[in-house]
Specification:
This protein is mostly helical. The chain is built from 11 helices and no strands. The longest helix is centred in the middle third of the chain and has 19 residues, at about 85-105. It is elongated and about 55 Å long. The model has no long low-confidence stretch (mean pLDDT about 95).
């Protein structure tokens, strides 16, 4: 199918190619429960997953419950997560989120989009990560920098903001593919479709990509 075909016609072969290339694609943030994933996702803003995993290895050993985070000393916590960047804001978000979990949900992470986005520091992207990865609920499509870049290069959307990009992708892809679609795009962005020098000659999506060979 030519790359010039409308996105609605190209989405099926794109998904098939992604499933063949990345059958085991999953979230790179290490976690063993919903709370750990929620904390790690908040920390991942403007930070690499590799760095977050290094930080959370020690963090998760110190803080096991929402109550532990809620009682954390802000200055101490800032020092513990400093290397992830924006550590003051992230400290405020995580401690605030934990207090809300204790006060509103008995310390447990809720499993609905409506409840998650009401928590301090939790936006739609973070909620989608937790709901899709831990609870296996396809409530939306995670749009990070990789997903935004690739969906633009593949001409699956003309939008630039995460909310509008997500809306367009949700209209194109079947709901049952939403969780895997985001994971596979992220893996493809990290391994092949790099921001500066995409490996177009070895790209499994090349046949359906209007930007092939055009990105300098």
């Amino acid at each position: 199918m030519p790359a010039t075909e409308p996105a609605a016609r190209r989405i099926k072969p794109i998904l098939r190619a992604l499933y063949r290339a990345y059958p085991d694609a999953q979230c790179a943030l290490r976690h063993s429960n919903a709370l750990e994933l929620l904390v790690a996702t908040i920390l991942s803003a403007q930070c690499t997953d590799k760095r977050v995993n290094l930080v959370t290895e020690a963090l998760f050993a110190r803080y096991a419950t929402a109550g532990d985070y809620a009682k954390a000393d802000p200055l101490t916590f800032q020092a513990e997560i400093r290397s992830t960047g924006f550590f003051r804001m992230k400290t405020k978000s995580i401690i605030g989120m934990a207090k809300a979990l204790v006060e509103r949900h008995g310390g447990r992470v809720p499993d609905t989009l409506e409840e998650l986005v009401k928590l301090p520091g939790v936006g739609r992207k973070t909620a989608n990560v937790v709901l899709g990865t831990w609870f296996k609920k396809p409530t939306g499509i995670v749009v990070d920098t990789h997903v935004a870049r690739l969906s633009g290069r593949l001409k699956l959307t003309r939008e630039k903001t995460p909310a509008k990009i997500e809306r367009d992708l949700m209209e194109l892809a079947p709901q049952g593919d939403w969780i895997a679609f985001a994971h596979m795009l992220i893996w493809h962005g990290r391994r092949v479709c790099h921001a500066r020098r995409p490996l177009c000659d070895s790209c499994s999506l090349g046949s359906w990509c209007p930007s092939r060979g055009k990105v300098s």
